Amino acid sequence: MIRNRAKLGTDAVHEVALDCITAAVDAAAPEAATTSTVSRDGQTLTIGESTYDLDEYDDVVVVGGGKAAGGVTRALESILGNSLDDGHIVVKQAVGTETVRSTIGDHPLPSDRNVEATADILDTVDAADADTLVLFVLTGGASALLSAPAGDLTLDDLQTTTERLLSGGVPVAEINTVRKHLSELKGGQIARHAAPATVAGVLISDVVGNDLSTIGSGPSVPDETTYEDALDVFERFDLTPPPAVLRHLEAGRDDRIAETPFPDDSVFDHVTNHLIGDNATALDAAAAAAREAGYEPLVLASRLRGEAREVAKPLVAIAEEATATGTPVEPPAVLLAGGETTVTVTGDEGRGGPNQEFVLSGALVHNGNAVIAAVDTDGEDGSSDMAGAIADATDVDDRERARDALRTNDASSYLSEIGATVETGPTGTNVNDVAVIVVPETSG
């Protein structure tokens, strides 16, 4: 999976870190997550703890989107066979689906083809009736891939808003609060379009804490946020929305546009959402890989958030504490963490992302021999085509240059120069970031 692994595995400690990363991404593969949760026995379809009698439906369709939607859909096609009638998904990479149509969309900014494909999905869902089972596939990346501008908003309005929110260091939950109120699909509105059909959401989480209403901006989940909340995001992060977006949000705040459906809305009477994979799935697999290599794993958290360069520092301090005192874990050990850190962009032309900034910052402050690695499980970290990076303190030989790279958000350029970037290409999944700190056995 790691294309440049031969260059990165410079010693046994680096190899353990790479093994943990590989195990984490493999465990989050959408096909594996789907087949472990969805099964069929005759005409009974089981998803998690829910069952669906396929004989009760005239039509079964699959719709949705996201970076891992292709893998989930392929698995659903295999399980459903000729019981599946139709469908349409929007994905980042080409997939070999059969019954379900797939459109390659753009990410992280929505595009014309995203909007066109999403319109077709809405048409499919609008045509559903009480005798239809809608399997709604949703994974990370869907907030951009599934795009349906609300009211008089344009694609340009959505693109400009997304750019400002992403570059402003706004956490994903707050970004999605805005997206829900600029869309005809998000914030529970796929349920509004589908009613009275039965909807089974099949979700893979790329959200810290697995808030289902935040994954892909929650198209099939009740929304408790409001237009007022969306306006507050811009105010709190000192960002200016495009004029049309401001007018739209203000109209919603003033009750001139209907709110997204709240939890007590009857459109959710026949909707059940099923979480089939998340960051914990990846961390558990990484821990198993560490244990197999003879290292004691310690999962610190699956809810990392905040500025990546700052988040790295306390985790590195824990590695130093382990080396010095044997607490909270005795070396040789692997510290594991996951979540969704952010980068507030100040540089104009830098390349990189939160995982690369995490590694570079951690290596700069580390006073020890631990190996620090971090990747985005989708294989694309920030504005670069790298998944992340791996380094120890000795790898960062030009510390002044490294600090300057952090300052200008150009971590990827520096890490590429020293041969520390992790290259995977798109992985076909997305369960947030995974950080691995390998603490070797102390000598003497």
UniProtKB/TrEMBL annotation:
<protein>
    <submittedName>
        <fullName>Hydroxypyruvate reductase</fullName>
    </submittedName>
</protein>
<dbReference type="InterPro" id="IPR037035">
    <property type="entry name" value="GK-like_C_sf"/>
</dbReference>
<dbReference type="Pfam" id="PF13660">
    <property type="entry name" value="DUF4147"/>
</dbReference>
<feature type="domain" description="MOFRL">
    <location>
        <begin position="334"/>
        <end position="433"/>
    </location>
</feature>
<dbReference type="InterPro" id="IPR025286">
    <property type="entry name" value="MOFRL_assoc_dom"/>
</dbReference>
<feature type="domain" description="MOFRL-associated">
    <location>
        <begin position="17"/>
        <end position="250"/>
    </location>
</feature>
<dbReference type="InterPro" id="IPR039760">
    <property type="entry name" value="MOFRL_protein"/>
</dbReference>
<dbReference type="GO" id="GO:0005737">
    <property type="term" value="C:cytoplasm"/>
</dbReference>
<dbReference type="Pfam" id="PF05161">
    <property type="entry name" value="MOFRL"/>
</dbReference>
<dbReference type="InterPro" id="IPR007835">
    <property type="entry name" value="MOFRL"/>
</dbReference>
<dbReference type="InterPro" id="IPR038614">
    <property type="entry name" value="GK_N_sf"/>
</dbReference>
<dbReference type="GO" id="GO:0008887">
    <property type="term" value="F:glycerate kinase activity"/>
</dbReference>
<keyword id="KW-0670">Pyruvate</keyword>
